[in-house]
Amino acid sequence: MDFRVRIPNQPAQPSAASPVKQSGAQPHKAENGAVFAELWQQEMQKSMAVKFSAHAMQRLQNRSIELGEGDLAKINDAVAAADRKGARSSLLLYDDIAMVASIRNKTIITAMNGEELREHIFTNIDSAVIIK
Questions:
Q1: DSSP conformation class of 112
Q2: pTM recorded for the entire structure
Q3: Separation between Cα atoms, residue 101 and residue 79, nearest integer Å
Q4: Does residue 76 register a pLDDT over 50?
Q5: Which of 115, 109, 70, 67 is nearest to 88 (CA)?
Q6: Secondary structure (DSSP) of 95-107
Q7: Which residues on neighbouring strands pair with residue 98, listed in sequence order?
Q8: Going along 59-104, which residue ranges are E strands?
């Protein structure tokens, strides 16, 4: 996702944590824009990131399911796609892992691996997403 942000023509207010140039000159406007755009992007990514409930984290750990950054990116994309379609609660199928997600809250509620899939019926979902 690419965000373009227009910065007003106001000098930046230095914070206690940011270094200030000794010459007293203000940073170049392009630098301000780049810093702001970077911070904006980081905040947007935080708000878009899928969370895992305590229950889901426990299930992942008990079932020895490990997810890497690439896996999490695919799961985030799947939740975003379900959200665009108006889903509220989805079954996410990824390799041999099934996860139930609250799409509105961007939260994985539970997870299980292939062995347990044979024994389960999924209820209270309005959609399913197959992640490739």
A1: E
A2: 0.64
A3: 8
A4: yes
A5: 109
A6: TTEEEEEETTTTE
A7: 93, 112
A8: 89-94, 97-102
